[in-house]
Structure formats: C-alpha cells, structure tokens
C-alpha cells in the first residue's frame, strides 16, 4: 500500500485507539534503515509510522548541502516509491523539532504540503512534532496553536510535547528530575489553547517520567498511571472518553508492563530509536569484528571485496533491525492488525 493519505492516517489512529493498541514509530537515518522499518512492519503485518529527527533531516541532505527541509523531502519521495510494495500502511512524521529549527525545517515542510494540496496532491509527511519542552508552557502552547492552524491548512497532524522528556536526542537534552511528569493543569491548559479536536486534531506527548536514549533503569521511574488520571479528569470536563491521542516518547528499553499500562491509558504511538539503532549497528559490528582481516587491507594484502561491499553487511543489519521492529509491534499489539489485511 502507498504511504497513508491524511484520511488513512486518521483512520489508523482511530483503529489503534478503539482497538487498544499502539503503533511503533521508528526513527530512521536513511534508505537502509527506512527499508528495515518497512520490512519489519510487513513481517509483523502491522501498520506503523516512520520518523525523521532534526539531526537526521540535516544528515539526509548531505554534508555539502545541510538543508533539513531538502533532506526530509528527499527521504519522503523515496519512501513513497518503495512503501507501495510492502502491503502495509505507513505514515511519515518529523520528530522533536525545537524552536530554533521551526523556520528551516517544519514550517517549510508544512508550506510544501499546503502547496501540494492546492494542486490536488497528498502531503509528503502526515504529521510534524513541535518540541516546546525548552520554553514555558504558555509559549509552547502559543506556538502550537499557530502550528495547528497551519497544519489544518496542510491536511497534516501536529504532535506536541506537554512536559519534559529526560535524556538526550539529537541535541535536545533535559535532566532526569521531577519535571518529567505532566499534570492535570498542564493538560487543561492544552485543551484551553488548542481545543479538544474542534480546532484540528493533534497528538500529545504527556510525560510520565520518560527518558530518551541509553540510561540506567534505576534512575528512571515511569508512572503511566498519570496518563489515566489526566484522561479521566479532562475527559469528564470535555465529555469524551480518553480525549487525548497520546504518544509515548523514549519507548526504547521500557518494560512490557509499563508499555501495556501506557497503551491501556490511551497511548497510540510509541517512539523507538535507541533499540533499533543498536540492532542495526550490532549486526554491522559483528560482521566487521568477525571478518576484520577480510574487510581491512592488512599488511599490504588486498582484503576481500565481498566482505567490505556495503551490501554484505547492510542486508543482515536491515534484517536485524526489522526483527526488532517486529518485536515492538508484538509488544504494542499492532502485529497482525494492518488495515491492508
């Protein structure tokens, strides 16, 4: 199936919410990891989301170009071509855009989507994330309000973060402390600023102790029950069950119990990066270490071209990452539930 249309993406999210499961949202760094994610979704018979980070967007455009919007559009065009052959529905998303990158990354992509829609074409990306964790909640929501208006014009969805995610991802870094927990007051302010869907649909990353990257589990205290408390209180106020479409950031390394509790409280999208990066690179490391005397031209010898051909280590790495995507889909309950089945 092709990359999700705006309506198909909304239908995906509705199915997850109604069915009590969540989609893996896999960060990729180029065509190889994109192909690995697609393979994993297809192997799991799961729809899913592929996302690009602020650093990857720059990386994708090449060292001499260094243009986030160009890099993101190039990967999206590639994805639209190859994803059509995989039999699952996949959405594209830009992840964790801080304030300093809005004008050279997300806003150009939203403008591109508006222009494409004016020509009867679908947007290249289906959603974009604004990361306002480094500014006050008032400023965060003011920027989000403007972006939501633009997103409605583009026929894309907006993802916001209400609270702070600990750890570091592509230069966005926060301490692991008591600021990692969203409150009912934070959620109430979000609805006051953005509405409860009547002004445009948005995804919300409420924080419950989440941490990005590699961390000591003893230093992290996930409290997914916070999500349930917020959903109940705000749901009663707006007259709708589980009013927030929730996102679980920093999902890599989380226990099955915490993931299940988060999904039960309305999480429909979980970001995964660290675990899939490791699966991909661990496979490459094994190849290089076990075949070092073939990969390297040692003592004036020639090595073995078949061993250092990037395809010889790239294909197993893609398979290893795809297997980790399957594991995520099974843990989140999306495996075997593709809309294309």
TrEMBL record:
One of its GO terms (molecular function) is fructose-bisphosphate aldolase activity. It catalyses: beta-D-fructose 1,6-bisphosphate = D-glyceraldehyde 3-phosphate + dihydroxyacetone phosphate. InterPro entries: Aldolase_TIM, FBA_II, Fruct_bisP_bact. Its EC number is 4.1.2.13. The keyword Transmembrane helix does not apply. Zn(2+) 1 binds at residues 96, 212, 249. Binds 2 Zn(2+) ions per subunit. One is catalytic and the other provides a structural contribution. Zn(2+) 2 binds at residues 131, 161. Signal peptide: none annotated. Transmembrane segments: none annotated. The active site is at residue 95. Pathway: Carbohydrate degradation; glycolysis; D-glyceraldehyde 3-phosphate and glycerone phosphate from D-glucose: step 4/4. It is an enzyme of class 4 (lyase). One of its GO terms (biological process) is glycolytic process. Keywords: Glycolysis, Lyase, Metal-binding, Zinc. The keyword Methyltransferase does not apply. Its cofactor is Zn(2+). One of its GO terms (cellular component) is cytosol. Pfam families: F_bP_aldolase (PF01116). Dihydroxyacetone phosphate binds at residues 213, 250-252, 271-274. Catalyzes the aldol condensation of dihydroxyacetone phosphate (DHAP or glycerone-phosphate) with glyceraldehyde 3-phosphate (G3P) to form fructose 1,6-bisphosphate (FBP) in gluconeogenesis and the reverse reaction in glycolysis. PANTHER family: FRUCTOSE-BISPHOSPHATE ALDOLASE, FRUCTOSE-BISPHOSPHATE ALDOLASE CLASS 2. Belongs to the class II fructose-bisphosphate aldolase family. This is Fructose-bisphosphate aldolase.
């Amino acid at each position: 199936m092709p990359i999700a249309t705006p309506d198909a993406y909304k239908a995906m999210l509705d199915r997850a919410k109604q069915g009590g499961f969540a989609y893996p949202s896999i960060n990729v760094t180029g065509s190889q990891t994109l192909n690995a994610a697609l393979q994993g979704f297809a192997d799991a018979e799961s729809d899913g989301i592929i996302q690009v980070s602020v650093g990857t967007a720059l990386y994708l455009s090449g060292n001499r170009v260094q243009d986030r919007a160009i890099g993101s559009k190039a990967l999206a065009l590639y994805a639209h071509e190859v994803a059509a052959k995989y039999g699952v529905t996949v959405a594209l998303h830009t992840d964790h855009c801080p304030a300093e990158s809005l004008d050279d990354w997300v806003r150009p992509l939203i403008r591109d989507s508006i222009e494409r829609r004016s020509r009867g074409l679908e947007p290249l990306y289906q959603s974009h994330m604004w990361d306002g964790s480094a500014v006050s909640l008032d400023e965060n929501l003011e920027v989000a309000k403007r972006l939501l208006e633009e997103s409605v014009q583009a026929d894309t969805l907006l993802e916001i973060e209400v609270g702070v995610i600990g750890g570091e991802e592509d230069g966005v870094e926060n301490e692991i402390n008591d600021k990692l927990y969203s409150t009912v007051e934070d959620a109430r302010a979000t609805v006051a600023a953005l509405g409860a869907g009547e002004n445009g649909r948005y995804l919300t990353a409420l924080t419950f102790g989440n941490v990005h990257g590699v961390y000591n589990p003893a230093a992290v205290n996930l409290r997914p029950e916070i999500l349930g408390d917020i959903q109940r209180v705000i749901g009663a106020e707006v007259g709708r069950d589980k009013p927030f479409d929730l996102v679980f950031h920093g999902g890599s390394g989380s226990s099955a119990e915490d993931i299940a509790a988060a999904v039960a409280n309305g999480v429909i999208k979980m970001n995964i990066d660290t675990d899939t990066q490791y699966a991909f690179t661990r496979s490459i490391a094994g190849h290089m270490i076990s075949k070092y005397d073939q990969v390297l031209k040692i003592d004036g010898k020639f090595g073995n071209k078949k061993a250092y051909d990037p395809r010889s280590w790239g294909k197993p790495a893609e398979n290893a990452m795809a297997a980790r995507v399957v594991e995520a889909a099974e843990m989140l309950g999306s495996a075997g539930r593709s809309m294309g089945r």
